[in-house]
Design goal:
The radius of gyration is 17 Å and the shape is globular. By secondary structure, the protein is mostly helical. The mean pLDDT is 83. The protein has a domain of 70 residues: AhpD-like. It contains seven helices and no strands.
Length: 115
Amino acid sequence: MAASSFKEHFTWRLFQSLIRVLRKNTNRSGPLTIDWAQPFIKPARWTKKTRELVKLGIAVGARFEGSVHTHARRALEAGASPEEIRQVVLLAIPTMGFPPMMAAMTWVDDVLKSK
């Protein structure tokens, strides 16, 4: 098996396993929708502000510009200050380096300037 096909096969098997675990732990069948995440989100009892700041950090790490815009805006709406939002982005420096952090900071600034 070639390396790329092994990787694709492994990724697909991992995905299938995740779906089985989700269905088992939520006692549901059918297509996965956003409400499937609720059993995993609700027990943490995080505030909406904390959830949005965590999601912002994930979006920064994934380098998803649209998601960074969305979660920065939602974090503001949930009561996060501009300083808290910028701090989340700054935390990316040790992991991602300075240039990717600066790209994410410009995306966040797009949202902060529009408010």
